[in-house]
Design goal:
Blueprint: E1 6-10, H1 15-26, E2 30-35, E3 45-48, H2 54-68, E4 74-77, H3 92-120, E5 123-128, H4 132-135, H5 141-161, E6 166-173, H6 179-182, H7 186-195, H8 204-214, E7 226-229
Parallel strand pairs: 1-2, 1-4, 2-3, 4-5, 5-6, 6-7
Helix pairs in contact: 1-8, 2-3, 3-5
Length: about 240
């Protein structure tokens, strides 16, 4: 039987993050999640954390390591926000806050997690990006830039820490059936489905399965990779 691993998922209280957390819990791993309000799924230790604040991130990791009984072995950086708007009308604040949460927030978490992983000489880092990282999206200059940055981050981590038994990979989900996408106008949902070769939205559990694979021993020789879970929407990128 595989030994339970110590897993931390940021933004693990809803949507894709929650599905990822529940998947690791179901696999028998020891799971902590962070969220702004400290809520989370059953079976996981829920910790309040603001990924835009280094002190909050460090405190959350301290609490997680205490609860899990040691350094985090698997980090899934999923916390993210959107603040869409047309380029000409996008404010400096709108651009900066999305970058600070989605990209710099992931950096703060990876930096803290890497300390324990280096000591262990083992670690799995999975960064949750988006299809728009490779395709772009109208009204999403800030979001696409933040999510594309995660690819460069994972590849730099791979070159820096790959010899220490640490992998860093990126998952780029397409359109996923979550509360957020269920709130879209029906015509927009139909257009997204029509653009996707698979002809449907993905379930959050399908993203979770890809993340769990990249965190597994079977993926020990995969690093710096971008794994699309998009039904073929991003082919050619």
């Amino acid at each position: 039987m595989t030994q339970p691993r110590r897993v931390l998922i940021t933004g693990g209280n809803r949507g894709i993050g929650r599905a990822i957390a529940e998947s690791f819990v179901a696999a028998g791993d020891s799971v902590a999640i962070t969220s702004r309000d400290g809520s989370g799924p059953e079976g996981a230790t829920a910790i309040a954390c603001d990924v835009t604040d280094s002190a909050s991130v460090d405190a959350a990791f301290d609490e997680a390591e205490q609860a899990l009984g040691g350094p985090v072995e698997v980090l899934v950086a999923n916390a993210g926000i959107t603040d869409d708007g047309l380029l000409m009308r996008m404010s400096d604040e709108s651009f900066a806050k999305v970058i600070d949460t989605n990209l710099a927030g992931a950096f703060r978490c990876v930096r803290r997690a890497s300390k324990g992983m280096i000591r262990l000489r083992h670690g799995r880092i999975v960064l949750i990006s988006s299809i728009v990282a490779v395709t772009g999206g109208p009204g999403q200059v800030n979001y696409a830039a933040s999510k594309a940055g995660l690819i460069g981050m994972a590849r730099s981590i791979t070159r820096e820490l790959g010899g220490r038994g640490i992998t860093a990979n990126v998952v780029t989900p397409g359109y996923i059936d979550t509360d957020m996408t269920r709130g879209l106008p029906e015509a927009q949902r139909e257009a997204f489905v029509a653009a996707t070769p698979a002809g449907r939205f993905a379930q959050p559990e399908e993203v979770a399965a890809a993340v769990r694979f990249l965190a597994s021993d079977d993926a020990a020789y995969i690093s710096g990779a971008v794994l699309p879970v998009d039904g073929g929407l991003g082919m050619g990128h």
